[in-house]
Amino acid sequence: MTKDKTNVVSIKRIEANRKNAKLSTGPKSSAGKFRSFIPDDKVTNATRLIFTSGKVYYDLIAERDKLGEHSTAIARVERLYPLPIEDIIAEAKKHPNATLLWVQDEPANQGPWPFVALAVNEAFVAHEELNNRTFRRVSRRATASPATGNHHLHEEEEKALMTEAFTR
Description:
Blueprint: H1 5-20, E1 37-38, E2 48-52, H2 56-67, E3 72-77, H3 85-94, E4 99-107, H4 113-124, E5 135-140, H5 151-167
Parallel strand pairs: 2-3, 2-4, 4-5
Antiparallel strand pairs: 1-3
């Protein structure tokens, strides 16, 4: 059985990104318990609040560090069901002037976005200070397949995703 060198290189790049992220918090707290939601305690009164889940979190942290961005908070949703909606609401309230974004690596019609958008928008209605806030998606365009099938095109899409996340 032969190994696919492209997959090995991609896996090593992903692992390097995660190691280079220099994260002080992970999905487990210092007590060793699973946390369904991990807020960003580094940024206060952000102008952009990104909610995300999965490996794209590490890419976003690396991009924020590369840009020297200090006004973007990145919150990590570790459990998608049941969605930690109260934590999401509390984080949105901590940043009253922030643009609220959900960033996902998956295409728009895939991944958690459809479920998350519905749940968050329904929950925001019950909170007057969140009523006029828009929760928007940043992702790859809707497609029938989850991947492009072309490594160079994938890298271009990934770059565009990071650009949009930090400029929208």
